[in-house]
## 1
Amino acid sequence: MGKETIRGLKLSMPMEDANGTSIASTNSAKRLHDEDYGGDLMLPHQGNSSKRRRLNFFPWKLMEDSPVNTYATQVLENMRNLKLLVLYNVNFTGSFEVFPRSLVWLRWHGCSLSSIPEDFSLEKLVVLEMWSSKLQYVWKGVMV
């Protein structure tokens, strides 16, 4: 298996004014603000909400209807260098001590836990996204 490192991430989004004229290239270092152009900026997908409604395309609806998968926490035991973990409608059984301690970003949509387990390592965790989860408490008791 190979090992790859992502050093940076660039979001490339062309911007146009109301006339369709390009006002920023993907290589432009200048930051553009909506008020600089009188509020006439048009993003590529602006105004598509009505189309999405007609097509019934809402990601959260897809997620609510997807089946829930259950795995043992041991499936992550050997992933010691894991930095990003994305889970959709996944339940885990077993001890969370074996979860990767190097985890920086956890996106766990549809988490069925009511609180984060005490044995789950939060040492390096920076981002925690838990949309559509049943989380009621961040954790029970006192965390030291």
## 2
Amino acid sequence: MHFCLTIHPPTRTRSYTHKMNYPNALNYPHAPNHYAPNHYVPNHHAPNHHTPNHHAPNHHAPNHHAPNHHTPNHHAPNHHTPNHHAPNPHAPQLTRDYLTDGYISYTFGPQNAEGYIARLFSVDAPSIQAIRQGDAFYAFNHPSYGIPPAVSLYGRDAWLLDFAVIRSIGSVVPQQLWSPQGQGDRRRYVDQAQLRMPIFFINRDGSLGVPVMDAAAGNMQLRGVHLPPQLADKSTVKLRISWPCYNLPEQQVQLRDQTPQRNPISFERFVKHVGSRVRQYLLDCESVPVQPNNWTVGHGNITFDEVMLIGLVQVSEGSWTPILQLMRRVVMERLERNVVFPS
């Protein structure tokens, strides 16, 4: 029998939104302050300054013997100098709410999600430049594995990073962030790998997610016909699911058809394969004895027809973990792990 140690997660009420201002990094110049006085505009109503009055010096007249008249007075504002202290209404508001509201954070925990996202872009965590547009989080950083940007925002290329959890659906399934056991394998397949951006299953009507039962039956209408660029050069991938309290082998998914040309399969066929593997995984869980808990799988507990596929996250070279969400709420319990919110 498998024993599952659980802890109650911390309440997700703190906000980590930082209205950071990175004008140089984002190439969003600040608008000049047009309301500042310009001390360099000559007074055209003043008497002819070319005939100096030697008895009453004109302090407003230019000194023609002075060097370069175009040298600006650095102590006076200039209409042509941007006011870097004025807020720019066109600059995006950077956020870190993906660490508290996003599916990746809900799946792996905020600390693991922060480290994982930093590896996606090969930068340190504070360097992530992300914004929220509606329910989606986009990053301006270039992914370590080059794929075309999803959109252009504020004149910059942006890549889809995550979605805010749709809480009205139900509880997100917490999972361990899988990693090879050996230090050498971890360095080769995770640390030195170019991890690819997450893949989300978006329906043609704009809604997010597909029930596992519908995906396995091929009953879906997804946006996108072809495999996303993250998978286009692969022939197989491994699905690594770590449902709470269960430890079952990975599942393999074929990305090529059975023709002699071994053509890439369609995106919907790929999602059908993923749905079939997740369904089989949950059916296998029913025969595994575990200590009863809120995530127990089987009759009278959680069954595969209550689970939705939200997307996929690459956890190592060749391995992906599906983001799963129940279509009902459960009392949140997690596998024992370090859950540390960033300060």
## 3
Amino acid sequence: MRQKNAGSTGPGGKEGTMDTVVNLLEQSWQWSGQELAITFAILLGTFVVKWVFKHLMTRVAKRLARVTSTQLDDMLIMAVEKPLEWVIVVLGLYLAIYTLRPPEMVMGVLRAGFWVPFSLLTAWMIFRCVNVFTSMLKEWALKTDTALDDHLVPLVERALQIMVWILAALMILQNLGYSVSGLLAGLGIGGLAVALAAQKTLADVFGSIMLLVDRPFVAGDWIVSPDREIEGVVESIGFRSTRIRTFEQTLVAIPNNRLAEFVIDNISSRPYRRVWITVGLTYDTPSDAMREAVSRIEKLLRNHPEVSQESTMLVRFNEISENSLDIMVYYFTATTVWEDYLRIREDVNLKIMEIVESLGLEMAFPTRTIHLSPDSEDLKAGD
């Protein structure tokens, strides 16, 4: 008895204990020693593969990603690293148990037990990748002038995240034996009802997307619709509507789907502002004086520092109208700011008046000459 107890504490005792465990498993589950050895080898290999994968991701992939100029690949590697490590573990456990050839009922539970964590890990990995792309979109949105994309990016992020987990749940239900087609049909009918109820809201959402893609204006722009029903300065571009401050200082909120349909004239986007005036001189203006007036006005515009020299500039005696001899003056100011535009226009007008006065000419104004017949004079005298 003493020898037996002494043997159980030595190396031989440990081997005896292992043999006892193997014999018990063989008798209870009819597993052979070879199957158990393969199972343990797969488990050991799983963790070795996991360690090698982590080593490759850390030493090779991350090092290669640091060489590139973009941060996207670095963030994607960090996003997929942990989920893929656990996918390796789950796959190894599945193969290890599959090697033991369990009963069919146990095998069915095993398949479900594999697909549930596999679906969750896949959803987790896609979820992390979505976060990477949306974080890049957020950085891009912060650099733009409009606030529309700042509102739109978080909504897109949340929608993609919800979609990922819904697909994962459907995969799990499908592998657990539930009918997903019936569930999708019910969701389709419910979604149709919701879509019909929220038709205008959805139209505004798509209108917001079109404004974000086309970017016809940004906050601070002066915009005008063709019928001038909408005119003012854009204060904010929201997800559903755009707020415009009119020149009467009223605040107008216009649904984005209407703005997306309009032909919008963005006044603020023009590089210059046009001035088109007519200088009317009296009929007693000599032709030489008219030529001199045209020449001096054109010289004035050519030498004016705040008149655009890159745009069209025209000074022409172009019309003999009913009450005056008309000089067309056509030019663009170098600025689009409203106050500066008015100041430049005033300065040019005053200097044109000085030119007319220096030449001894006069500005014309509407006149009417009435000729009275002799009969009319006699009639007045009789009265």
## 4
Amino acid sequence: HLASRDEYDDAERAGRRAREETDAAEAAAARHAELLAGSETELAALSGDATPSVDAGVVHAGAGLRDLQAAADGARERRDRLAQQRDEAREAWTATRGAAEEVETRTAGLRRERGLREARVTQFAASLPAARATLERLTDEREALAVESARAHQADTQAAAHQSAAEVTRRARRAELLKLESEAGGAGSSLGDLERAAQATAIEASRRDDALSALARERELALEGLPETSAAAPADEIDALDDETLEVELRRVRRTLSQIGSVNPFAVEEHREVASRLEKMTSQDDDLRSAIGSTEELIATLDSEINQQFGAAFRAIGEKFDEYCQLLFAGGSASLQMAEEADGEAPGGIEIVVRPPGKRLQRLAMLSGGERALTGVALLFAMLTVNPVPFCILDEVDAALDEANIGRFAQALRKLAESIDFVVITHNRATIEVADTIYGVTMTEAAVSRVLSLRLADVPAEMSV
């Protein structure tokens, strides 16, 4: 701004000199006007008696007055022109100073913006280890889920006996899958934010680089385009300035300043860093989505196998359940039915329908206590027949049965004991008779419990119970 400031000071000094010269010319013109007025008065007094010398004096005074008036008019015009040039120089200096201040303000804003973007980049860099840790954790969980699925596949042979546990496991896996999908969705959202940030940074970097270059060029041109004057420039040099040229230069400078925008000189480097991080996050997201797809396929396969094996086991248990009900009830029929949930996506449970001899079909809640006990025993025996276990403990399951039903229960128990070892807690004589070994608990006089055992095979027939 120094050249504009010097020009403004020179214009001020030239204006003051012009005003002083104009005032002096006007004062001289006033004095000559007074002299001329006095001459005219004297001429009027002399009327026709004027001599040639008087006429010559009047003519000379009039000519001097006209010269002074012309000089005053010229000085006034020169003063007005210098005042106009001073005002234009002042406007140019003010505009240039405002442009420079605006440039400084924008530069400070760009520095602050650069600091904010550096902080954002640091934040993104700090969040990257957490994203990697999340990906590693999801990978470990996927591997653990794969191991668990393999173990579940080995345990599917016992799906009929453990259908409730299988259903719980399936739902737990589905919940785990939903959790993985939710976390993957969060990772995808973070990746989308990074992509949008990278695109915005790239656009901003390009625009600000162009604007910064244009700003630098236009600022140099604006400062170089202003006329350079020294502090001691005479008024004649100011008079030599072309008003039209100054006006054109002022319009050009204003137009250039209006086109200058904010820029960020570090946007390109920021774009490279964000693009590199975006590429890494995209690769990690692809790996994560691939892992989720594999897990979903594995779960779908497991669900299909579980459903197939469960269906086969359910049908086999239903058939055996009907046979044992006919045996224990001495007739009638029974069936197992799947109850669907309201949404139809998963079974809601198992409904037991029994028709005792001479009665209509009834649900379990409508049966008597003995009938419900027989139904439960029939279902248990059916499950043990389809999927045998090494041993089974029965705790007073025959307590609600009468003698006729006890005999049929003991018959079925004895048949099933050929493949399964039973430990039966009972007080019923008919049940004890079919046992191989009897364990009795008694209390002595000292209030001490004592256990007695007896193998019925070692007891002579005449001494048997």
